[in-house]
Amino acid sequence: MKKAIYLLSVLALAGCNEDDIKDLAEGNTKVFAVTGANVQSKMGTIDPGYYDIKTITEGMSSTPDKLPVGAKSTLANLGIDVEGEGCGKIDITPPLCFEEGNSDSCLPSEINMLGLAVYTIDLDKVKTASENGFYPTLATDLGGLYVDISYREVSCDYLKSL
């Protein structure tokens, strides 16, 4: 009963995104991790272009707090089954911050797009995933300091072509 009430509460907050409602009805939700970023103007030693997240973080003087950079293998190691996976992107209008009220969680203004790996997992595992390098796509799943960040689904081949 408690899970049903929670599910209805989350459904009410989810809005009209059909995929999110379908996932929630099945007891699932999505989390994402950043896989790459597009640098629009020179950032330290990095020239404009799309790079994997490791290259980007190595080129930053400091990495933003709460930057979600978990790997699929991390989910498996945590005992979290991946029900589905895909890719997405976030077109950034600065500032994009990953934690409410924490300016150290914001991306540098030189980054104008993030590439994402998106995983569908059991709703009960979203807190564990978020504590281990993943960001809940429905910030309402965890509430608190999470910012509701929307992304657009894209093909994984699109990100590979950048």
Low-confidence segments, ≥5 residues, pLDDT <50? Answer: none
The run of helices and strands is: HHEEHHEEHEEH
Quaternary structure: single chain
Main pleated-sheet profile: 6 strands, antiparallel
Put simply, the count of helices is: 6
| Backbone CA Rg | 16 Å
**Structural class per helix/strand content?**
alpha+beta
Mean pLDDT: 86
Helix percentage range = 25-40%
Write the layout of secondary structure elements.
Elements: H1 2-14, H2 18-25, E1 28-39, E2 49-52, H3 53-59, H4 72-77, E3 84-91, E4 111-122, H5 126-130, E5 135-136, E6 152-154, H6 156-161
Antiparallel strand pairs: 1-2, 1-4, 1-5, 3-4, 3-6
Helix pairs in contact: 1-2
